[in-house]
Amino acid sequence: MIDVLVVGGGNAALCAALMAREAGARVLVLESSPREWRGGNSQHTRNLRCMHEAPQDVLIDAYPEEEYWQDLLKVTGGITNERLARIAIRASSSCRDWMRSHGVHFQPPLSGALHVARTNAFFMGGGKALVNAYYRSAESLGVQVRYDVPVADIELQDGRFIAAHIAERVVDGQRLPAERIEARSCVLAAGGFESNREWLREAWGQNERGEWPSDNFLIRGTRFNTGVLLRRMIELGADAIGDPTQAHMVAIDARAPLYDGGICTRIDCVSLGVVVNREGRRFYDEGEDFWPKRYAIWGRLVAQQPGQIGFSIIDRKSVGSFMPPVFPGTKANSLGELARQLELPEAEFVKTVEDYNRACRVGTFDHTALDDCHTEGLSPAKTHWARPIDTPPFYGYPLRPGVTFTYLGLKTNEHAVVHFTGKPSPNLFVAGEMMAGNVLGKGYTAGIGMAIGTAFGRIAGTQAAMAAGYRTHAVTAGHDHANV
């Protein structure tokens, strides 16, 4: 019999599998996707947000625990479990050597890559390289991995995991029979439900304009996160946490593909100009804070606009100051021409930009600092980096909400245990996006998802090995201590 069954194939799942295997357990990983799409949303990541008290290899200066916590507190609006959040924060300071031992390499951030040289460690080769390194390490250690095996049901007995059920399916034209896989313990790390269009519709409903907002959402990540297992666990009585409409939702290029657009579809010039809706009107402060701390609110902001679309507008002065997106912007030599090309109401759009230009109070522009360039007498205000948009050519980028992962998940504790009406399961654990809502009630800050997945993936794998009868080292609260 398998000792530890890991359901999922992304960062958190692989961290769990590696930790359980290092403890001596026989481990099987079930990945719902084909091999070429393995890794879930982790294949699209770039970095890990890391606490550090002093400069560390690829990280400059210091990013102490309290500052990290305050950053998280600000983006979540206080909707977070401080105990679990601090576990992830502390673990982020010490996990990189373990990651390196499994083949992950880090590099300094590229010039102009967000403003995170102090806070985030970038993966050499990005998330795909990280995922591949973990799979290579897992397989070399004897972890079994199976692809194209979506788990449809979990068999429980009084909160104890008994077996996973795989439905009959067709793979490469071949019909495969249903299966039942028993294990002594199990880690659930199968992601959220962002690729389930029906569930998104159910969660978001209709707005006052009669629109179904989620119909216009694009999915930045994997198409395989349909939430089947998450919904089944909730049906089976597992304690849930989180708002189903809350998600890591970014404003991305409206021309991006429906699935797997990844990082390159993000539009990073929002704070350098203005954003208007399809009526040609601004609707939020583009300069509220540094882009890495605010980029993840813009998907939701665009989702609240008519038609769930917006347009990021800049002029020539801003070119070269942001990471260029994969698609070029619409270019025009006048504001009126740009409005016509973007099919915006010309008079309203031109008035919006001219009103903004008149309101700009330009001091010392510095996009690497919270500068003194702001607007006066304008609503909404732009509180930093406000410069007139008056130097042709002008550029416009269409924006849609891009969902990375949803925050509805399973409630857990410092041991990554699944609970049923408050009672912890003796052998069922959860990690990654399936429990990230414990820490992320709303909002996001760059690299925090990987910190949560790495911390709780390692905890879940360790605890699952212990539940299967293996003596190991528990990983909790960011520190290792022996369990005997």
From TrEMBL:
Could you confirm whether the keyword Oxidoreductase appears in this record?
yes
Does Oxidoreductase count among this protein's keywords?
yes
A Pfam family that the UniProt record links to this protein: FAD_binding_2
Report the cofactors: FAD
UniProt cross-references to Gene3D superfamilies, sorted A to Z? FAD/NAD(P)-binding domain, Succinate dehydrogenase/fumarate reductase flavoprotein, catalytic domain
Give any GO molecular function from the UniProt entry. oxidoreductase activity
Task: List the keywords (alphabetical).
Answer: FAD, Flavoprotein, Oxidoreductase
InterPro entries under this entry?
Answer: CobZ, FAD-dep_OxRdtase_2_FAD-bd, FAD-oxidoreductase_2, FAD/NAD-bd_sf, Succ_DH/fumarate_Rdtase_cat_sf
FAD-dependent oxidoreductase 2 FAD-binding domain: residues covered = 3-441
Q: Which residues form a coiled coil?
A: none
Q: Which NCBIfam families match?
A: CobZ_N-term, PRK08274.1
Q: What is this protein called?
A: Tricarballylate dehydrogenase
